[in-house]
Amino acid sequence: MQNLPPPEIYALEEKYLPWGSVIADVADLVCQWAPHYGRVLDMMCGPGVLLERLAKKRVDLRLHGVDQEPACADYAKKTFGFEIDCADARQWEPKVPDPFDVVVCTAGLHHLPYADQKPFIGKLKSLLKSGTGTLIIADPCILPFRTEKERQTSSAVLGHATLLATIESEPPREILDAVIGILRNDVLGVEYKMSAVIEERMLKKHFRHVISQRIWPNDDPRFHGDYIFLAHD
């Protein structure tokens, strides 16, 4: 992870970025698919915003989070009372070999280098209950690209749309600064956003059933924006 904002800014982004509606929809999906007293793992959980939503919506769920940023783990503990394993999600292994009913990864996949993304999806599947587990991945996706120039252009298109939508919400200056930082990271290749078509294809290498839905924007015919992918066998 590089050039991430402080966890308090990261948590505040949910209120101003279009991404906030994705978090709400993911929480609803987790509650729909998790059985009573189910085990839910939030990989690359950041400051714990999704976990906090889930804890309020389903008090029965057994929640666990993993994030490699110590500042995020500390924030989640101090703000919400969650114990977060501070570790690289690619190498993390549960202390107790008890599979999860639902594994979630929101806005995390694009932080991993392209070569690591497909193996990481395989790792997430290995943490699920065989046959009954559900994986939910939410990620901002750019337009398909073939060259580095196309990747940069696609990143700039998404970043510009996100910035304009955020400005409409009249955010504080530090939120705008964070969104501009995201655009910069994407264009310069510090983050690794992929097209929705490729993400769905990677998931289908590991799961028999994959459903994708674009949450934002609603008025753009091009296939970029914030997506949710639900996968299970």
Protein topology:
Elements: H1 7-12, H2 19-33, E1 39-43, H3 49-57, E2 62-67, H4 70-80, E3 84-86, E4 102-106, H5 114-126, E5 134-141, H6 148-168, H7 173-188, H8 196-204, E6 209-216, E7 225-232
Parallel strand pairs: 1-2, 1-4, 2-3, 4-5
Antiparallel strand pairs: 5-7, 6-7
Helix pairs in contact: 2-3, 6-7
**Second rung of CATH, namely the architecture:** 3-Layer(aba) Sandwich
Global Rg: 17 Å
Could you tell me the strand content as a percent range? 15-25%
How far from one another are the termini? 31 Å
Q: Residue ranges: pLDDT <50 for 5 or more in a row?
A: none
Number of DSSP strand runs? 7
Main sheet specs: 7 strands, mixed
Q: What would CATH call the homologous superfamily? A: Vaccinia Virus protein VP39
Tally of separate helices: 8
Number of domains: 1
Question: What is the multimeric organization of the chains shown?
Answer: single chain
- CATH fold naming: Rossmann fold
Encode the helix/strand succession as letters.
HHEHEHEEHEHHHEE
CATH top level assignment: Alpha Beta
Biggest sheet: strand arrangement: 3-2-1-4-5-7-6
Mean pLDDT value: 96
Structural class: alpha/beta
* Anisotropy-based shape: globular
What is the helix content?
Answer: 40-55%
Describe this structure in words.
The protein is α/β, with parallel strands linked by helices and 233 residues long. The chain has one domain: 3-Layer(aba) Sandwich (Rossmann fold), CATH 3.40.50.150. The chain has helices at 7-12, 19-33, 49-57, 70-80, 114-126, 148-168, 173-188, 196-204; strands at residues 39-43, 62-67, 84-86, 102-106, 134-141, 209-216, 225-232. It has a 7-stranded mixed β-sheet with strand order 3-2-1-4-5-7-6, sandwiched between helices. The protein starts with 6 loop residues before the first helix and ends with a strand. The model has no long low-confidence stretch (mean pLDDT 96).
